[in-house]
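User: Can you help me understand a structure? I only have the sequence.
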Amino acid sequence: MTSLPASPRRSTRRHRLAAFGRTRRGLVTGFVAFHAAYILALLPLIIAGGTEGDLPLYRQWAQDAVQGTWPIIDFEWVYPAGALLPIVAPIALGPYLYQLVWLLMLAGANWLALAAIAGARLQRRSAYPAAWYWLLSILLLAPVSMLRLEGVAAPLAIAGLVWVSRRPVVAGALIALATWIKVWPAAIAAAVVAVCRSRWWVALGGIAASVVIMVAIVLAGGASNLFSFLTIQGTRAPQLEAPVATPWVWATIWEMPGARIQQNDELATREVVGYGAMAAGEIVGWLMIVAFAGIAVLLVRARMTWVAGAPRTELAEGRLVVLGAFALTAALIVFNKVGSPQYMLWLAPIVVVGLLVDPDRWRAPAKWMAVTSFLTTLVFPIFYMPLVRADPFAASLLLARNVLLVGLFIWSIQALWRVAMPRAVRPLSMPLPRPSRSPVSDPA
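Assistant: Let's start by predicting it. Here is the structure, written out as tokens:
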């Protein structure tokens, strides 16, 4: 039996929709549609003066700050000092409108990301696939992309990574600010320092932004708690969703002695307990350091071999920075006893920039990253409570997500290895640049 060809009318509609998506109006429509739909979905909650996701906790911290009790300044805090700005700012119009102001703030941050990707007037049409991928990412991760701090840090990281070569001082300031909100953009900074010739200008912007933040906290009396975020989670057990927790999740399902999933009331999260779980959490911490050191060596080696011999050094630097940033960030997730759904917003921004500078190389990882993001949202919040109750189906979704994460990490290491250790018969494993210019590595 032969299949019938697609309806001409349906095919025409698809082509028209694709053509519309490649226009400025189409991209703006997609941006507005997503954010408007999100606000409309939460409109009853907004009208009632409520908050969703992590925002009840954020609003409580903001209200306490207004009343004189500030995180970091008055007590140890789980977040870096820069997170005070996005958490306290939405309280400016009062606690009743906190949710609405937060969503509008994140819409502004996402617009910054699109402007960095496609130009201030969205004039760079070749960058539209990357811009649409960012909108797809925040859609797939909607429960966390608009309701947690990563929704602020991720767009800043995108803008910083895009502007490393063209505006290195601004890029350094943005990456530093994102790092002071959520620590993970430090991996981007490390890749930039290892690879880019503009590293000193990037460092200047980063140091300037960091000094402003640290001086403000010290003058306010919070010097003793400035780096409390590094130690406050030191003694916790592996978190339920972390890759390292997988054996104990299934040990709980199989009712093995001592294995269980328990609530950590102090940190408001679920953890796994069982024989060897705490030791495994400590071991992956050391493995993270080893992985970082190995990736750094590969980056330096690749800069000395592939970048030095590339016909366009800036383009080669841009591609290598993105690849190194992804490998370092993936290591932060894979070798971490803490695991949360918003961690996918650590990787997705780097994939966006990868699609911008090297679309052929990043097209396949982008697809797998999208699947990983979708599985993450299935795990949390849709099947999270069954997972807490050790449901095998929910645990299988989590297992598949974690396997994909490890696979993406392995892919990045293999790609770095091929670049850093080229064979004599094929000295360049990364494809030659196309005639079109890259906004990351070419001056405007």
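Now, to help you interpret it: The longest helix spans residues 277-309. The chain has a mean pLDDT of 92. Let me know which part you'd like to focus on.
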